[in-house]
Write a structure and sequence with these properties.
Layout: H1 13-27, E1 44-49, H2 55-66, E2 70-75, H3 87-96, E3 101-106, H4 111-117, E4 124-130, H5 136-150, E5 165-169, H6 176-187, E6 191-195, E7 211-213, H7 216-219, E8 225-228, H8 244-251, H9 255-259, E9 266-268, H10 281-284, H11 291-309, H12 316-325
Parallel strand pairs: 1-2, 1-3, 3-4, 5-6, 5-8, 6-7, 8-9
């Protein structure tokens, strides 16, 4: 793996499978009475969040603590950032504190790349979401979830997603989750189709490794997984569709559409959900929806990413046993 994780496009097929396999191994910790490993003891992980977050920040915090790292949570609200401190000065402060890894979420696309290439810090940088650009660990946990359901033998260890058909539906224009998933899922061999209103399809999408459709009903019956995206009103400065009801009618996933999906197909959502808009309560609460499972899988994936970026070059659990025996 590279030194930083900024974009899902930076991951080769072998890199991605390594992360997924490591996460599979670490997921077994959930069944242990004590869910901690000493693998990152003495390391410091900083969660640097300039945007509000619940799932991602808590997930990274839980992941680092389960690997016995020291965790510093930094929120822009209530910090010197609110007084006008620059990203550079914040980064230099973290470097002075000895940060081994910085997990950054920022409203500006490209901020994690700037942090990683600036020389301001020496630690690893993990992109936890930058503007409308990317969210690579979300794509990894989504791929992990798909692989567990569609390659159940040994939870798909060593396997990619070759030939699997994944449909991503909704506000693709503003979705960093969609961008990262298109890159990663295609790297893993999946056939990805984007479904959205024409107004919510990004410029230049024809260069992406995916197909584009404007008709959900035309593709829902031949997909292995449907990933519903939240309509991000906070990023919209214009009317992108007539009404919420019209959007739900054409691009929402309800019980009737779910019934037309193949029997083995799953429904995914990165959260938070707009129930009644992109997804109905009936679908969100069904056994086929993996939204809660995705949150749990996120901890395992982020443990794997932190472990591998901070020097892990062998089985994480084996390394822990070696450390415990000293």
């Amino acid at each position: 793996m590279k030194r930083h994780l900024i974009s899902a496009a930076d991951l080769s097929r072998d890199d991605a499978v390594l992360i997924l396999d490591t996460a599979e191994e670490l997921a077994r910790l959930a069944d242990r009475p004590i869910k901690k490993l000493p693998t990152l003891r003495g390391r410091t992980v900083v969660n640097l969040f300039f945007e509000d977050s619940t799932r991602t920040r808590i997930s990274f915090e839980a992941a680092a603590k389960r690997l016995s790292a020291d965790v510093i949570n930094f929120s822009a609200k209530g910090s010197s950032v609110s007084k006008g401190e620059s990203l550079k000065d914040t980064a230099l402060t973290l470097e002075a504190m000895g940060a081994d890894a910085v997990v950054i979420r920022h409203h500006a696309s490209g901020a994690p790349h700037r942090l990683a290439t600036s020389g301001w810090i020496n630690g690893a940088v993990v992109n936890a979401g930058d503007g409308t650009h990317e969210h690579p660990t979300q794509a990894l946990l989504d791929a992990f979830t798909v692989r567990r359901h569609l390659s159940p033998a040994a939870s798909g260890v060593g396997q990619d997603l070759a030939g699997r058909r994944i449909t991503i539906v909704g506000d693709v224009l503003h979705s960093r989750v969609a961008r990262s998933n298109v890159h990663l899922l295609s790297t893993l061999g999946a056939e990805v189709t984007l479904v959205a209103p024409p107004t919510l399809v990004p410029f230049g999408v024809e260069s992406w490794p995916c197909e584009v459709s404007y008709d959900l009903d035309a593709v829902v019956g031949k997909t292995d997984a449907v990933m519903m995206l939240r309509v991000q009103r906070e990023r919209m400065n214009a009317a992108f569709f007539p009404t919420e009801r019209e959007y739900a009618r054409r691009y929402g996933l309800d019980g009737d559409r779910m019934a037309r999906m193949p029997e083995h197909a799953i429904v995914m959502h990165p959260g938070p959900m707009n129930r009644g808009m992109e997804i109905t309560a009936e679908v969100a609460d069904s056994d086929r929806c993996t939204a809660v499972e995705q949150v749990a899988n996120g901890v395992s994936i982020r443990m794997a990413v932190l472990y591998l970026l901070l020097g892990g070059n062998e089985s994480a659990v084996a390394a822990a046993r070696t450390e415990e025996s000293k």
